[in-house]
Records
---
Amino acid sequence: MEGFYIVVHGGVGDLSAPKVFFSPKGNTFVHLVLDLEPCCLALKFESFVVLGLADKFVSIPQPESHPLNKLVGECHSIIQKGLGDILHDSSVTKSMCMNYDNYEHKIVEHFSMELIGWPNDLLPICNPGQLGRLDRVQKLLIALTAKVCHWKKLSEEERQRRIVLNTEHHTCGEQIYKPCKKHTSQGTKKSTAPIAPDADDNGMGDGSDCDEGSSAA
């Protein structure tokens, strides 16, 4: 069995000692998916309860009545806004559209930004419009709205490790670097060469253009 539990004070007058337990995989989940230390998660929950925020909490509206295209649009908006915010916080002034087709190369490798917490059964990360059924898009929207799925900045070591891993997967036949569509003059044959990570890539290379099919429609 794997998991975790957190038991805290029910109010300021409650003198019961808080109790927490995290199994190894539960501990890993909190670190990697929630991007928190387990003790910080426990403190956040305790503050939420003791301050009475639970009584004032307005639940996230359930989007069952919304049409599929509206849910897809909301997912696009949240993902794009989150990317813009984290790039701005990292002093990147050039605007950047989310590139779903070449996410690993154009976003992760170039800008050291990763979208974590994407629901496991919806992987790999793709354009929300390609998820298909309404319930699948709704699941992603709930994860985005609740900030379970959010952007995270990678360290340079993490970025270099990701480039090595992506290159290995691509060499083994997995389509990590997809063909890049380029504008060419009439009569000139378009290149279908796969994108490969630049040897001198410093993490801030070209990637600001919205490739066809890569940004929100």
Note: The beta strands are 4-7, 19-22, 113-116, 150-153.
---
Amino acid sequence: MDADAAGIILYNLGLTGYTTIARDYNSSVVQVTTADGTVLRDYYATGLAPGILKPDVLAPGLNVLAAWPPKTTDSASTGPFNVISGTSMATPHVSGVVALLKSLHPDWSPAAIKSAILTTSDAVDNARGPILDEQHEKANACGRGAGHVNPVKAADPGLVYDITADEFAGYICWLQSTHANATSTLLDASLPCATLPKITTEQLNYPTITVPLRPTTFTVNRTGGRPACPPSGPALRTVTNVGPAESTYTAKVEAPSTLTVHVSPETLSFSKAGEKKTFSVSVIGQDLIAEGSLSWVSEKHVVRSPVVAVVRVGSPPPAPGRTSTQH
């Protein structure tokens, strides 16, 4: 503008595709995208961390208009409002959902709250189409996680995958023994690794299911109500009934032809609130990485978990076009 230009047309880098990132420029600046439109932004942390699907969930985070303090040195905005994009905008949305769920269910654990958010998230967009990435390609599980957060559904999930403090501590202990960059100490000194079972990524009672892909069947396993390592015996995930006392859920599996997911039993029947049921998940696949989903469906609820099988759990996320999904 200092060169007497009448205006400026600002366009984003090709990496951002159809995404517009708003900035607080003056009215002489017009922003356009490499290609028009706004969809899933490329801020998300993708991959397996290690072996747990990340991101967990999507939330509004692109071009969020919010209050802004005046005279902030690291921004062109002078307040009282600004437009910001990124995970720093998505995180407060999820934090608000967590606060809502804790107020509705004060006895729920952090793991139960996370499970409720993940298993009720939307796997499709507002038009009931697939969630797209910034290039308008169908986002894979390493881009969308479990889906887009849905606060109304999260308040009444039906079933939750709960994890106790000592189980999660056992998982951290396993990470310390197998991953050089894992944290070296536990936050709670009352849970020393020497007294805890080592719980692998595959055995953690997480609401998303990530397993190593092998030419023979891999079974997610929990023995005697506690995770076991290495896998042996009946393969189990554990769900807790937080819905109607009398309820029955039927397993629904969606997977590409290259991924076989077997669930046993295929029906879970509950007679009281707080009752726990276990089920086995066996996976066999042929691709570098394959993804599907397991849903427990009742008359009132759908409790959905992504199922991701990779050749090596903890490896980098797949390149576009290298993931098999249900179409």
Note: Helices lie at 87-104, 110-119, 141-144, 151-154, 165-178.
